């Protein structure tokens, strides 16, 4: 299994107890959807290694306590701390319309209803209060809130995200860079 065939499910945060269990963080909207998960790929030294799940117990806060097969002690579990967890993309439900998985839109062109083509999605930041799409625009990172009023839809075939940005959003990021450049040109008087 290769990285580009997978999506990152989460990561191992710590060990749990002395019998080899670990706590994992599930970076998903609905952790309960994964309570029947039978295996996962663990990234170790850049390689995706399959681990079979003996038991999984979903907790609050997108966490789960997991017992992997063949991991029977805290010493065996400790090297897994901070390792990313992956699942094959084909395990995801297919989405349509304005719904999308964050990992799938990286590299999509962003086209605004008024401004036209703007730039490419570079990453998506998941925050406690608001998820943000990062777009590369004229050498600047512009953050776009993930919001149904802003994100109008995606075209997976053309790798395009259609948006209707709030007036002035792009200016907030580009005007600040011009102001800094203008300040550098001014003379300093004693």
UniProtKB/TrEMBL annotation:
Superkingdom classification of source: Bacteria
Pfam families referenced in this protein's UniProt entry, alphabetically: PRC_RimM (PF24986), RimM (PF01782)
Any one Gene Ontology cellular component term annotated for this protein: ribosome
Ribosome maturation factor RimM PRC barrel domain location: 103-169
Subcellular localization(s) per the UniProt record: Cytoplasm
Protein task: An accessory protein needed during the final step in the assembly of 30S ribosomal subunit, possibly for assembly of the head region. Essential for efficient processing of 16S rRNA. May be needed both before and after RbfA during the maturation of 16S rRNA. It has affinity for free ribosomal 30S subunits but not for 70S ribosomes.
UniProt note: domains: The PRC barrel domain binds ribosomal protein uS19.
Name listed for the protein in its UniProt record: Ribosome maturation factor RimM
